Amino acid sequence: MAFQNRLSKNLKMIFSMAKRVPVIPIFVLIAAFTFAIFAPWIAPFQPRLGNLSERLVPPFWMEGGNSLHLLGTDYLGRDILSRVIYGARVSLTVALLAVFSAGTMGTIIGLVSGYYGGFVDILLMRFADITLSIPMMLLAIILVAKYQRAGFCCLSASCRLL
Description:
The protein is mainly alpha-helical. Helices cover 71% and strands 0% of the residues. It is built from seven helices and no strands. Helix 2 crosses helix 4 (80-116), helix 4 (80-116) runs antiparallel to helix 5 and helix 6 runs antiparallel to helix 7 (150-161). The longest helix has 37 residues, at 80-116.
């Protein structure tokens, strides 16, 4: 009986904590980091090597798919699951660099603004207000129209969002 009471108290505590803590996003991030770190051992195939005889294989749940390529293959016969797993490495690296660089820059700007105050603080805050008031989608459209290259636009717009 005492064991059941402790168990029910522990379960209530876990469920009450789960209401406050974003459990599913934390689980997804842990899974993504695990896949990114252990990609060479988890991925079933090399992401850059293709086999043209196995090109355009559908995912395993569709007709014609097989369990060898769970998410299928692309037009060059490369395994999509392996490419997704290896792609997590690049995505997480870029995300971490963006977060740390934005945090560092924000800390430095905040320290300068707080230390000097007055005119410097007002100037830096107006610059931040101007930057935040520019719609990112409009900026992306303008950059594509000006430079006619989608890669440049996606890079600059995503850097601004972070």
